[in-house]
Design a protein that fits this description.
four-stranded mixed beta sheet; 11 helices; 9 strands; globular
């Protein structure tokens, strides 16, 4: 895939239309073609509740409602795990039936007091939950994969787009939601299937993930993902361009959390766009990009990328 960072922005409207069309596909197809998620023999759901504040009473009510709701669920094929941090020490438990058939909390792990919003804590809880019930988690991801593959086939059948753009956030501003090992076991194999199916149809694959995903960018390039967005400033963008900028296009490098704030002036927005282009252009496959949430800011960004891109091109 050859990406020209000066001409791509001028095609942004077409690219946006294709993305919108992909989502409209599922209301445009006839009923027989609608993708139906396959049945799964067993599944695991993790509910993460942080209410160590004045919301603690609501957390307790939520758990009671979940327990009541599980009365009609076949627990031999479903696992409901709950991480609860309220006014007492945090705990991870499974809602299960005792020998008398009554629903109860089956404690998996009791924790000392900790900040449950920290990425490291969330990572440990998800890691433990995934490995307590790995077969169910594999089945869930495999079922989701089959559903997405069907969606890809339908997009190709009815729209013949140039690009398939799929979203699956994997990180916070500081790190991945989970360890690279978890990603490799549960997510990477299916990403490889998406890449193959999309490429078999002659289309390109752009993946969206916010956050710091530095640790797996080389592997995204390795399995053939064509582009990643929005590569935020919390990532080592120059390092990734140097390591694999000839294999994957990195779309990002603009501080969207700054330029999209209310009150940010036009000159500040234009300066940020120029900074990103001066920093990353020419170091690999790169497109200056951010996630737009403000129409006016987006218009300024498009204008500056187009104008400044021409200036750089003619130097």
């Amino acid at each position: 895939m050859r990406c020209n960072n000066y001409t791509i922005p001028m095609r942004m409207k077409l690219y946006t239309l294709l993305c919108i069309s992909f989502f409209l596909l599922f209301t445009a197809c006839n009923q027989d073609d609608d993708p139906v998620p396959p049945e799964v023999g067993s599944r695991t759901v993790l509910v993460y509740i942080v209410a160590d504040n004045n919301l603690s009473s609501f957390a307790k009510e939520d758990v009671e409602e979940m327990i009541a709701g599980m009365e009609s669920v076949d627990l031999s094929s479903s696992n409901l795990l709950v991480y609860q941090d309220d006014k007492v020490a945090p705990v991870l438990f499974r809602i299960s039936r005792n020998k008398k058939g009554r629903l109860e909390k089956e404690i998996i792990k009791e924790y000392a007091e900790q900040v449950s919003t920290k990425a490291s804590v969330m990572k440990e809880v998800m890691h433990r939950a995934f490995y307590e019930y790995p077969d169910e988690v594999h089945e869930f991801f495999d079922a989701m994969c089959e559903y997405k593959l069907k969606c890809i086939d339908l997009a190709y059948k009815y729209l013949k787009p140039d690009v398939i753009h799929m979203h699956d956030d994997w990180g916070t501003n500081k790190n991945l939601f989970f360890s690279p090992e978890i990603w490799r076991e549960f997510i990477k194999p299916n990403e490889e299937k998406y890449v193959k199916r999309i490429h078999d149809h002659g289309m390109l694959y752009i993946h969206h993930s916010c956050g710091n995903v530095d640790k797996i960018i080389p592997e995204l390039a390795e399995i053939g993902i064509d582009a990643l967005e929005p590569v935020m400033l919390c990532n080592d963008i120059e390092g990734s361009l140097k390591a694999c900028g000839d294999k994957i296009t990195l779309m990002g490098g603009i501080d969207n959390q700054m330029i999209d704030q209310k009150g940010t002036g036009e000159e500040v927005i234009r300066a940020e766009v120029r900074r990103a282009m001066d920093t990353y252009v020419g170091k690999g496959r790169y497109i200056p990009y951010y996630i737009p949430t403000n129409k006016e800011t987006f218009g300024i960004y498009i204008d500056e990328v187009t104008k400044y891109g021409k200036d750089i091109f003619h130097k």
